[in-house]
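To: structure subgroup
Subject: Chain for Friday's discussion

All,

I'm putting the inputs and outputs inline so they're searchable in the archive.
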Amino acid sequence: MMDATTTVSTAIASSDYPSLHNFFTNTHPSLNAGEQRSISAHFIVAAVNSNFFPEAFKSPVVQKIVEATLKNLPASVDGAADNVLRQKLFDFHVEEADYAEAARILGTMRMEDNESSPYYMKPLEKCDVYVKVAECYLEEELTVEAEGAVGKAGTVIETNGISFPSKDDDDENKDDSAIQPTTTEEQEGIITLLLRYKSTYARILDANRKFLQAAMKYYDLSTAYLHTDKIDADDLMVMLGKAVTCAILSPNSAQRQRVLGIVYNDERLHQLDSIPEFQSHSSILTKMYLNRVVQKSELEKFESSLAEHQKAIMSDGLTIVERGVLEHNMVAVSHLYTSIYFEQLAQLLGVVDADKGEKVAAKMILDGSLSGEIDEVEGVLRFFSKAQGAAANSENDGSSLMTWNETITQFCVQLNDVTDAVRAM
């Protein structure tokens, strides 16, 4: 055992990668399980306490040794050296732009709540680890893995009451169970961490096309000036622009209308006109909130600003923008007309053909977001007022029940006739 540790220490001191490879390939497997774990721990402690890393990470041989030793350790390593190694390896992979591997390594950090453990981490430190993992996965567009990591960060935040520190010193409103910063540096650290968490969460919701939720998260981020003056105003405007983008892309609903209203009433909205990426956003959102028809020509600049996942074609053959605008315009048109031909509707909207317009209208009527009826023979869409819609629904419910009863009665009569005929044979 002594000879083994000496061999490993000597090889580390001289950066003798071939000797390390020979030892961990031939000698290490021949030791018993306890000795293997002890030697693995010795290698990690000796390596992190020397100048061996990060240069050694560039060797594929050393990377395999590191991978193997991290999987074969005792219950505890002196000074939590294995976590130190994971952090160094994470930094190396980030520098190499291998974000998926960096996230995978950092995700194996040993974190415990017992303060006497060498692996004890404060809640803020644990949250930081999870957010870093999520950020790295997002760089590789691995949204499922990123969502899992950000979910763990959210659990830590909720469990420990981590929230934005108040700008004032009103002790009466403070939550005693929440983490309270004692210095300005700690206060800024909490703010930065929460903003990173919220930004990552918003990006995940956006990538997963949960646009309404993403819009609220982005808008929340755009109001970070309420908590700190350390963030550049231009960055806050970008978050506001992203909130507008996601709000416009959201499916038509009462909740969407509320979100549109929140953003519409923000005095900064028209400042987006000065940002090329968001030049058309304020006018489109304003029309949507006020239930005005949005023309196809108005969408060109907006569509050019979208990310690839926001341009996806859905199962009905419409892009996300086309479907969102069409649903909005259906509602807007219902405030202007009592009925309209689908050919006219398609020309008015300038987005889709008549058949697709009819399908969208049928879906909206079924899910209750549009009150009306379709006359397929005439190719007409008729809109109902709220009172008419309620009456029609009531009438339809009664008609359906009567039809059901009549069908059951007819079936029973026919069954009796068949039964009588069988008996007579």
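Points worth raising on Friday:
The longest strand covers residues 372-375.
DSSP finds 18 helices and three strands in the chain.

D.
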